Prior knowledge:
4-stranded antiparallel β-sheet, elongated
Amino acid sequence: MKLNKSLEKNQDKFLELILSLTYYLKLFSSLKRFLEYVSLVSKYLINQEFSLLIPLDEKGQIWFENICFSDNQLRDRSILDLKEFCENNKLFNNFKLKDINSFENFLKYKFDPFIFKNYKIISRNKCRGFFFVFYKKSEQQKVEIDKDKIEILVNLLAVAIEHSLLLKINKKHENVDREISSGAEIQSRLLPDFCPKIYGIDLAAHCRPALQLGGDYFDFMSIKPNVGERRRQRGRWALVIGDVMGKGIPAGLLMTMLRGMLRAEVLTGLPPDR
Length: 274
């Protein structure tokens, strides 16, 4: 009877902690805080001595600012030793998944009184980090007992890291879209707002680029812009229609450069072939 009550109590505690993690996962605004929270909760979920969480960034490199160590006393010194190891082995910005073997050898040497189990954090078939759980050598049987609980934690970690990376990518895309929109607005201002009145000619023009920025270009340039309106209507004009090869930002930049060059050249009064 006491055993059943104890099991029920442990299950309730487990469910309560998992529910708090999933709830926090929906709301978290800082990946670092969530990873620290997982490390903290793991101390109560798993029969471990301590755990080490090493996430990877969008380039697959060790995300040092988000490394988490569940033991506060060992944390600062251990993270410094990890960074020193990576520096000595040229793993800064040059980490490959096969390097995890030398990493594990370093951990075996550093934490010799303990054994550990390494769990890969996988999301969308990509490795997003590693979760090391350390046990006393005398308690090796606990490794298998904790396996299912750790798998749940690892899955939550995978979702959190992937979510954070996607937010980062999305923010970059938003910045690019904002810059392109600004470029499109500037480009639209470079095109004539209206067609000029030229004696004996009816004009109409409109430009609608395939993308936000385009290379289509038209312009009307008076050869003598400083004369009166009536004389300008009967004077000489340069009419330009252009289509820069390609689309998007490169075509838009070329079109802007071309406009400036043509407007300067037209004022010289030279014929088009010159």
